[in-house]
Amino acid sequence: MSGKWQVKDHEAERLLFDGRLLIAFAIIVLLFVALVLKLVNLQVTQYEYFSARSDGNRLHSQYVSPARGLIFDRNGELLADNQPIFNLMVVREQVDDLDQMLDFLATIIRLNDDDIDQFNARLERNRVPFASIPLRYVLTEEEKSRIAVNSHLLNGIAIEPQFVRHYPLASLTAHSVGYVSEINQNELDRLSENEKENYGGTNHIGKTGVERTYEDLLHGTVGYEIVEKNNRGQVMRYLDRTDPVAGKNIELHMDARLQKAAEEALGEFRGAVVAIEPATGGILAMVSKPGFDPNLFVTGISSKDYSVLVTDEVNTPLFDRTTNPYPPGSTVKPFLGLAGLQNDFVDYDFAIEDPGYFRLPGVSYRWGDYTLRTLIGGGHGRTDLQKAIYQSCDTFFYDLGHRMGIDTIHGFMSQFGFGQNFAVDISYARTGVLPSEDWKKESRGEPWYPGDTINSSIGQGYMWATPLQLATAASIVANKGKVNPPHMLKSVDGAPYNSRNDSAIPDVLVKDPDYWRYIEEAMTMVVHRPFSDRFRDYGTAYEAIAMADRNMSYKMAGKSGSAQVVGISQDILSSTDIVVSDLNKDHGLFISFAPAQNPHLDPLIAVAVFVENGEHGSSVAGPIAKAVTDTYLMDILQIDFETMNNLPPLSEPSNPALITGSDE
Amino acid sequence: MAENHRLPIWSAIHADPPLLVGIILLCAFGLFILYSASGGDAEVVQRQATIMGGGVLVMLIVSQFNPHVIRTWAPSIYAAGLGLLLLVLLIGVEANGARSWLDLPGLPSFQPSEVLKISVPLSMAWYLGSRPLPPRFKHLFWSAFIIVLPAALIIIQNDTGTAIMVAMSGVFVILLAGIRWRIVFFGIFSLLLASPAWYLFLAQEHQKNRILTFFDPYRDPTGAGYNIIQSQIAIGSGGIFGKGFGNGAQSHLDFIPESNTDFILAVLAEEFGLLGILCLICLYLFVLVRGFFIAYSARDMFSRLLAGSITLTLFFYIFINMAMVSGLVPVIGLPLPLISRGGTAILTLFISFGLLMSIQTHGKEMGK
Q1: Is residue B237 a contact partner of residue B247, using CB atoms and an 8 Å limit?
Q2: What value does the mean pLDDT take over residues A493-506?
Q3: Which of A44-48, A234-238, A372-376, A391-395 has the lowest mean pLDDT?
Q4: Taking burial as the number of CB atoms within 10 A of a residue's CB, which of A213, A403, A610, B102 is the most buried?
Q5: Cβ of B315 under 8 Å from any chain A Cβ?
Q6: Whether B132 contacts chain A with CB within 8 A
Q7: What band does B6 get if pLDDT is binned at 50, 70 and 90?
Q8: Average model confidence (pLDDT) for chain A?
Q9: How confident is the model at residue B106 (pLDDT cuts 50, 70, 90)?
Q10: Is A330 an annotated catalytic residue?
Q11: Quick check: B292 contacting A, CB < 8 Å?
């Protein structure tokens, strides 16, 4: 083996090795120089850039959402306030495996598919990288502590406190005050660039009612803060802050006590009550029953809860009955009567002999008196306009309507808000239909038939009106023609709001101001004209209102109505256990204002009541209007009519009626 | 020859004072940076200091042995290392994706591949040191065998980084032994030719990712490119003078991953700037130059090759880590010697320092 070994030349090998060592050292120096050059490039040449990048890493400008303005009723009772909740927020960019994270979270807190679906939808529309996206709202204390304990496993997950809307009266104000809920993509798209910026820190937006109408007032202006965040998105330090400007607090005309009274007065019925203060047009109460709990929507209603609300086709709790139209029935009669007076088709002496039906000239078909149909035969006998109103005589109005023609009716009644939305800040209210020949041609493509006028004359056929419109019309009569557009808003941060500034609706002018007294008297008779020996000569609501409350200390002007149910789909009928005949019952309506014929006081409240399938306006809707009026006049305003009635009447009416051509 | 006589204590404990001072300064520097990188965690620093203290002890134990004696052990240590690697194949434990740990009863768990970091250059120096230089083709063949066998076993354990380091420590011996340049260039050329084939057929997904990320870190800025991007931001934002001790936002807000281990240089660069890094490079250069001096002044070829290989391997570690953190080469999971937090790897490092000291302190007394 040793024979194979070469002789080692130690000196040569040593030189070879030393040479290699030198080369190695040179390479080392060269490589270090290259490294230092790279570092100089990073730390000197690109210092500014990387410095900015480093700040960009840790410094985050984040939105500070403004506190939403509070909503009060006219007495300062809170209708909408803000309460703290704790939300689970996710920064998507900091979560390695989202599915795995969600699976893990589901094992420690309540997290269902619904939450995850909604979260994914929020992720979709999120526009800011590294933004906190809500995963679950309203964490319980226990859930909060479980998350805190596991926080080391939850990169990109944080608990953030948030103030969210709370509606103390819950279902009572569900439709009128409305609710806020999460902004959806459509709403985001509608915002201008500036508004989008302003909504940067806002998750919620007003969806319905006052919350939606006054979104601009209530929202406020977003603030900003510069924070230092670590890699897991946790805020380590607050460095700078521009405070947000809170939304404005607003006060509504609404009176929570009256709202409650109206809701209670409706009892088990489905229906609507609208009460207006005639002197201002302020809406005192606006109740649609059944309601729903708007608080459910604030933090994202579960699809289960939501389906309960939308599949109830009988109660339709989401449906706002105050702003959707129904046939107004006989409640239109005072307005038709006034139209007749104004246009000289009737006067105080005019009267018909009512046989109980009406026949168009040359037509054999009889239009029966709807109110008498199920009663004993015959008509009302000799009937003038006042009797036609307090007895709700259809025949009189068939005749009057036929003689006036639909376009005259349309022209006059539109001044009371029929077919239009007079409300200043309830833009979502429907306009109903005040038909005319043109309207029918345009919408139906058919000519107007004389029979259409007959039906319209008693508030049926093509005529549709919302409870809000009926209350508005009643308040205009109570005001003797002065139009104060109905509105919710009373003041903004204490500064009073006047709806007349925002609305140029002309007042209703009549030739003779006595017409107003005459009509008010007729409507007062509806409630107060007692039974007598004379055949059919009492007010239709006397029994249910004045007779039922013999101690009634003030007078109320009113008009009942009932509206035929237009038709119920077989689907609804088969989906409910309510007796079918109940759903086919007429809707009951009542409009009123009070105190009426009071020498000391102008009317203080106008009310419209709509009772779905209530059958009778006078006996079902009337007492509800009475109860609401009672609460307002006696309990809330605490007017002592007994004492007042003993005072001498004022010499001058405080609210003189407006007269046609009064300038001349 | 004469210098050690002036310091008889050092000579008695077989320590090389310049190397010792350089090592201790590096250790102190490392602990200082680690304190900031760990967010002021005294426990981490204490543990590291303990390991380093143990390392110094191991180093001094190793330096007691005469290189001549150590040379005779080289084949046995190599065989033992291979045996342990085979054992890992059978009963190895997996950690961090590499099945390279051995958990023997009565011993702390360790990586047998660490043993090879010493035994490969040792046996290569043993093999080539007694052969005529430059090495003949036949000797190169057996040298390749000595290198490739353990490297292949380590690759099987899925620890490519260590395999490369082990192989390089052997390759350095061959290079220092005077292998002809044309063979070196031929080798480099064929590696370059083979690399596309490796990339296409052999490379694993994460390896491909690292290479793609090297060329464009922003192709996946929150995933594969995240480490290098954040590390560059940390280095760049440090500027010339740095943000100051404990003020590194990138590291203290946890933007730098592995800030205690592989990426600790980014923490240094952020807090002490270019000057801090230059300081560290100077310290390293001091140790490297001393290593070269030891290799240069060693008496026999075995000692020279061993000392040279150890010094070059140390440099290779330093450079690869620094180049990787600053984006000069693709990310390879290697620690920064004496600065990064670590366990057994530090001990291995101190063993190699022990060998250097052994060569420096015994070689001069040994008669030829």
Answers
A1: no
A2: 82
A3: A372-376
A4: A610
A5: yes
A6: yes
A7: low
A8: 87
A9: confident
A10: yes
A11: yes
| Closest residue to B301, CB basis, from A13, A24, A36 | A13
Q: Where are the alpha helices (DSSP H) in A126-272?
A: 141-149, 185-190, 193-198, 209-213, 215-219, 256-266
How many Å lie between the alpha carbon of A18 and the closest alpha carbon of chain B? 7
Residue, of B179 and A618, whose pLDDT is higher: B179
pLDDT for position A429: 93
CA distance A467 to A456: 17
Compute the distance between CA of residue A466 and CA of residue A320 in angstroms, rounded to an integer: 10
Q: Is the pLDDT of residue B364 over 70?
A: no
B225 φ/ψ angles, rounded to the nearest 5 degrees: -85, -5
Question: How far apart, in whole angstroms, are the C-alpha atoms of residue A517 and residue A529?
Answer: 16
CB A540 within 8 A of CB A391: yes
Contact A65, A202 (CB under 8 A): yes
Q: Is the pLDDT of residue A108 over 70?
A: yes
Question: Across the interface, which of B134, B222, B323 has its CB nearest the CB of A35?
Answer: B323
Is A49 an interface residue toward B (CB < 8 Å)? yes
Structural domains of chain A, with CATH: 61-252 (3.90.1310.10), 256-645 (3.40.710.10)
Taking the C-alpha atoms of residue A380 and residue A394, their distance in angstroms, rounded to an integer, is 10
Which pair of tokens denotes residue A261? 């009274």
- Among B367, B363, B361, B360, which residue's Cα sits nearest to residue B299? B363
What are the structural domain ranges in chain B? 92-196
Query: Exposed/middle/buried for A394, CB within 10 Å: 0-12, 13-18, 19+?
Result: buried
Q: What gap in Å lies between CA A523 and CA A26, rounded to an integer?
A: 113
> How large a percentage of chain A has pLDDT more than 70?
91
pLDDT score, position A3: 42
Query: Which range among A44-53, A65-74, A194-203, A317-326 shows the weakest confidence by mean pLDDT?
Result: A194-203
Residue where the block lists tokens 């929507």: A297
Alpha carbon distance A368, A430 (integer Å): 31
Cα Rg of chain A, angstroms: 37
Q: For an interface test with A, which of B127, B228, B253, B268 has the most A Cβ atoms less than 10 Å from its Cβ? A: B253
Q: Which of A417, A535, A428, A525 is nearest to A479 (CA)?
A: A417
CA-based nearest residue to A156, from A137, A129, A182: A129
Rounded to a whole number of angstroms, the distance from the CA of B356 to the nearest CA of chain A is: 15
What does the block give as tokens for B276? 């801090």
Place of tokens 């009113």: A558
DSSP at A465:
B
Q: Which tokens in the block code for residue A62?
A: 């984040």
Chain A residues with CB inside 8 Å of B176's CB?
17, 20-21, 24
ipTM metric: 0.93
Alpha-carbon gap, residue B303 to B308, rounded angstroms? 8
Asked if B133 reaches chain A (Cβ–Cβ under 8 Å), the answer is: yes
Active-site residue, selected from the candidate residues A176, A330, A392, A475: A330
What the block records as the tokens of A376 is: 């004993």
Q: Which of A94-103, A283-292, A383-392 has the lowest mean pLDDT?
A: A94-103
Of A392-396, A481-485, A654-658, which gets the smallest average pLDDT?
A: A654-658
Task: Evaluate whether A480 touches A509 at the Cβ level (below 8 Å).
Answer: no
Rg (CA), chain B: 21
Residues A493 and A495: their CA atoms lie apart, in Å, by 6
- pLDDT tens, position by position, A277-307: 999 999 999 999 899 999 989 887 878 888 8
Cα A159 to its chain centre, rounded Å, is 32
Distance CA A369, CA A357 (A): 5
Q: What mean pLDDT do residues B59-66 have?
A: 94
Q: Which residues of A touch B291 (CB under 8 A)?
A: none
Strands A71-72 and A250-252: parallel
A112 or B290, which is more confident: B290
